[in-house]
């Protein structure tokens, strides 16, 4: 039986477990739920599995029409809240872009459940540059409806860029992850320098800067073999593969597609450093908080990236900052930096364990809402 003294949270995301492009979002949602549980909250999670709404255990709660996913999803949640003996204390929603069905759901919560607090997480803000061509119509539709929706939001949690959302109480959040137990890395091959790149690939990840950097490196009498291990899928993957073929780097860039965590950890053991985000400036942003940075650190890897990450000081000994532009990465400098890195894998992992857990971020948010368990 559920402990009635616990505060309750509904964690809501439209991420689809069957869509490989949503794998990172789904993994993040499960890590967030575990952190909320660890803080003493009774947490239920709602997400998608194709045209089914499921909970955190994978139990199918409802089926919805594929052509009306958002309508069916928020209609189900509205009905479920009505049928509950007690409304949740907090709704924690990954921003789904505003539609009439989402707006109706928020209004219903505000009107009928006065004690329920609504937190909306914005994984990117501003997000205008994510819409190109005709899709910008969706952006303007979203913005029109959001002017009405924001009146029903208690707190906006903006990840990365520190920009207030007009008309909404705003707090700033950086991405975090579930930190695994420390596992000593096998010593990578000293004769082959391995770089690990994980992502749901898009232009703004800037992996082209590494590939062109590799081309330059191999044109200048390289003193060490370098391999780039690329994991993941995404809309930009084909462009990356085409660039690799055009530069004749197939021998040096290995593509693995989507991999499970254990498989990624095995590939990680070949690598000396992680490739962070190198093109966030292409979205017009000057702050970032990518999950991949946190993954590398939690596995004891140093990393390189461009553009400020709020959780990582540029002075950290395991961080190499590249210029915030489109210039190729100087691979020889990355090799030298890694060779001289003064900290061990376990020291890097310790940093993740101390600073990059979701629990610490949520304590601040729930105290801001004044909805927290006594022990916290």
Could you characterize the architecture of this molecule?
The chain is α/β, with parallel strands linked by helices. It folds into 2 domains: 8-176 and 357-369, Glycogen Phosphorylase B (Rossmann fold, 3-Layer(aba) Sandwich); 192-355, Rossmann fold. Helix content is 34%, strand content 19%. It is built from 11 helices and 14 strands. The chain has helices at residues 23-38, 69-83, 100-112, 136-149, 207-218, 237-246, 261-268, 291-298, 331-340, 345-355, 358-369; strands at 8-16, 42-49, 52-54, 60-63, 90-94, 117-122, 155-159, 170-173, 192-198, 225-231, 253-257, 273-275, 303-305, 319-321. The strands form 2 sheets. An 8-stranded mixed sheet has the order 4-3-2-1-5-6-7-8, with helices on both faces. Strands 11-10-9-12-13-14 form a 6-stranded parallel sheet, sandwiched between helices. The longest helix is centred in the first third of the chain and has 16 residues, at 23-38. The two termini are 23 Å apart.
Distance between the termini: 23 Å
Query: Which spans have pLDDT < 50 for at least 5 consecutive residues?
Result: none
Averaged pLDDT: 92
- The succession of helices and strands, N to C, reads EHEEEHEHEHEEEHEHEHEHEEHHH
Number of strands: 14
**Percent of residues in helical segments?**
25-40%
Annotation field: number of helices: 11
